[in-house]
Amino acid sequence: MSWNKEQMADKVIELFKESSSVNLGIGLPTLVAERIDPKMNIMIHSENGVFGVSGRPTKESVSPTLINAGKETIAIGSGASFFDSSMSFGMIRGGHIDFCVLGGMQVDSEGSLANWMIPGHKVTGMGGAMDLVNGAKTVIIMMTHFSKKGDPKILKTCTLPLTGKSVVDIVVTDKGIFKPVNNKIEIVELADGILKEDLGLDLILA
Predict the structure, then answer these.
(1) Tens-place pLDDT, residues 58-104
(2) Would you please indicate which residues are annotated as catalytic (active-site) residues?
(3) CA 34 – CA 193 distance, rounded (Å)
């Protein structure tokens, strides 16, 4: 059986250390904010200028002025702060974000990431991803294991335009947890019932 989205988010959270700073990308990574145990004292950073994001708001607390970088409404926790984009990217580029969790289209055996465009399709921009993959201390990619066409998204070499080269530390998919190591893919953990033969990674597994 594959992990569902919530189980994937929980696996990502297990990788965090208590009292860490975390940036979450759009898409699947936003689920992480909703499932973090407050006792972990995780401070979530959003590159549009918020530090202290705390999941999604209730109907009573929702505010159109409180949004994340993906333009989704957010809740904030005690001690949250707000600042301009230059300060926000200074935090990222200065190495002050412990973990970033991004979605991915492709990750390869060198740890390179492609997550921002498919040639010939509409491009909305890279956002802060290029800064995050180079500035965060640990880069976690959270994505489905296979594309909608059924192709593995972990490859020997990315074929899509790169967001960053040799930047990925760990990958969490619905099939398991993986690490790029020495131009190979190392299995850290597999979801219950998943076999190596199910991954489509025969040629690049460590």
Answers:
(1) 888 899 989 988 888 999 998 999 999 999 999 999 999 999 999 99
(2) 47
(3) 27
